[in-house]
Amino acid sequence: MKLELGNFHVKDMIFGDKTAYCNGILTINKEEALAVVREDESITEADLVIVKPGDKVRLVPVKEAIEPRHRIGGGPLFPGVTGDLQQAGNGKTLALKGCSVLVVGKHWGGFQDGLIDMSGEGAKYTYYSQLKNLVLVADTDEDFEKNEQQKKNRALRWAGMRLAEYVGACVAELQPEETETYELAAVTKRTEEENKLPNVVIVLQPQSQMEELGYNDLCYGWDCNRMVPTFMHPNEVLDGAMISGSFMPCSSKWSTYDFQNFPMIKRLYQEHGKTINFLGVIMSNLNVALEQKQRAAQFVAQMAKSLGADAAIVAEEGYGNPDADFIACIVALEDAGVKTVGLTNECTGRDGASQPLVTLDEKADAIVSCGNVSDLIKLPPMETVIGELQALARDGLSGGWDNDAVLGPSVKEDGSIIMENNAMFCGDQVVGWSTKTMKEF
Amino acid sequence: MKKAILYLNQFFGQIGGEELADHAPEIREGLVGPAMELDKQLGEDVKVTHTIICGDNFMGSNQEEAINTIIGFLEDKEFDIFFAGPAFRAGRYGSACGNICKAVKDKFKVPVISSMNDENPGVEMFKKEVYIFKGGASAAAMRKDVKAMAAFGLKLLKGEDLLPAEEEGYFGRGVRSQVWLNPPVNATDRVIDMLLKKVHGKPFVSELPIPKADLVPIAPALTAEELSNIEVAIVTSGGIVPVGNPDRIQSASATKWGKYDISQLDDLVKGEYMTIHAGFDPAAANNDSDVIVPLDALRAYEKEGKIGGVYKYFYSTVGTGTTQAEAARMGKEIAAELVEAGVKAVILTST
What we know:
The structure holds two protein chains of two kinds.
Chain A: E1 2-9, E2 12-15, E3 20-22, E4 25-28, H1 30-37, E5 43-51, E6 57-66, E7 69-71, E8 91-97, E9 99-105, E10 114-117, E11 132-140, H2 154-168, E12 178-183, H3 192-196, E13 199-205, E14 218-219, E15 222-223, E16 230-232, H4 234-238, E17 242-243, H5 256-261, H6 263-271, E18 277-283, H7 290-307, E19 311-316, H8 321-335, E20 339-346, E21 367-372, E22 376-379, E23 384-387, H9 390-394, E24 417-420, E25 436-440
Parallel strand pairs in A: 1-8, 2-4, 6-23, 9-11, 13-18, 13-19, 19-20, 20-21
Antiparallel strand pairs in A: 1-12, 3-4, 5-11, 6-9, 6-10, 7-8, 14-15, 14-17, 16-18, 22-24
Helix pairs in contact in A: 1-2, 7-8
Chain B: E1 2-9, E2 26-29, H1 34-42, E3 46-54, H2 56-61, H3 63-74, E4 81-84, H4 91-108, E5 112-116, H5 121-126, E6 131-134, H6 142-158, H7 165-168, E7 176-180, H8 187-199, H9 224-227, E8 231-236, E9 240-242, E10 258-261, E11 273-275, H10 283-287, H11 295-304, E12 309-316, H12 324-340, E13 345-349
């Protein structure tokens, strides 16, 4: 399978008469773009805003991030989700780099939503402060979940994906400025040099904790809660086979943008043929019942072993209950003789003294840790808020609260905030960007 | 000008050696022994105003009295930070430094700093509550150890950013927090580095160290016949004590255990027994402590002849926040008593 990602490096993003890309400038026709958003009648209010690094802007509740792209030869960017099923990861896809489509609730947030500061002290907590962002701020008539802590955010998330397809289409006829090529021969058809290197798989554990459909990550449109681990080509992940869900506390979440750009997968490609033989992706999940966890770990270990993996990386999208899957999977792999490195974040509590993962095992002796979901963060007021600041306190965001006996509400009268890292939008960057680690004090 | 106070034992307080280890606590204005070096290292902005001296044996055998006396000394003093030691490898001194630091921190909410050698048992007992710097084995390291304590004390007083324990030089307090790597290194590079080292059998360091499980195999099962002839003892980490908590077992991070005579009892009744455990809702256990120490059920078994009897004491401590090291020490002490008494079967209840 061979994927060519043709890149256009967006240096600036503006509104204008025609949606077009020229010399690094991405111009958006706002009305036309909003018409794409409004194709879904559930959307009751919608606006578009452009925010850039350094802007004195706070975004909350942020629900999703997507990289604008275009699939050459037609077909949906997200097969099985925004259109019919087709094979992802083989062919050419064009991507607008350095920018994203962000989806922000005009009023209502939930457990899974997060916050982004585009400048100041808060900017370092999230990857998305470094990007030029086309922000969809919208509300819907999904009243059944308006006051629910858990929201599917379906209309808004799908609007974001349509918008990313619409924006991406403007480069359809253009020659990319740079092309990244991702190609792996079939597992049994590798070169002699490749075969001499340690064989490595990456095991991804996307979020799938909700029994009810509509909240979990999707694999080609299929709810990850309803699958057993399966072998995938890494190109499929990089090319829209996976979309983010709407469940996990936000700093632990992997956005759709994160899946499209999965840094750990790209890094394994870089090492492929040099230090390792990259076999591919075992796509697992994070279901809640013990038997499901055991079943998933068993499938993963068997698959790794049958593929001849010498080593594995296991990455989890979540913390708490999913830690049991994470550790069980590492233990199963180690027991099968596969040397494994874990990639995760931790929850050590506001005082930092809690056990970092819900379960531990001595066999998990190699872990890269990307942050603490419960670190407390205080940030000053921001000039402009896009969305609704009160959502952080009012709507049960995983890192916000409406009142705390000691700390008071998350949102203060002057617009300053106190929150847990939990609510930083995809903040722990377990997909691989994180330059954070955990240290003992 | 900020103010500091230093705690020393009788030896470093220049009272005398082991023969004077019963020396009762005293406080002196100004600098005694290592206080001079500490004062010098703290520089112009911080002054050591008083030195407290207490014999190691006095603190060991009359801990509560010693602590209360010292807290009394401090009540009318103004101070911003409290130091104790360095205690090097001296076990009783280390334990005394830890005890007094913890008490001062709890009472006056000021930073407390000590220094001990890694073999000093005081480290394991108090590292969670006190900044204990990694000190030398003997007084030869005095200047270096005092310097480390002073430098960190200054950082705390100035409100400077604190580095992780390893970099500052104190024993980690079990507090894990996120930090940005400087220079930045992506998680992807860290994973690859660790993976290649692990695959090639080279040493690597996990970013999430997992404490070694120190498991003791459970003893082989007894037959019903054996059981009908022996006494069964009860040991609990559920904090059941006679009302009033006569041994003053801590409600969390316990370092003490107690044993209570139940030879004349058939039931732990409300108002006479309770739990002092701070890690769960105590309502049920306070209403009927048998839910944690099942004396009533064991008496019934005794009458039925299923067990030979109930050992005359039950043993109790608190399991919440208690370090593994402390729990193991207490477990060994209790086990030694039970073995000495010839007890062959123990029911261990937790909460």
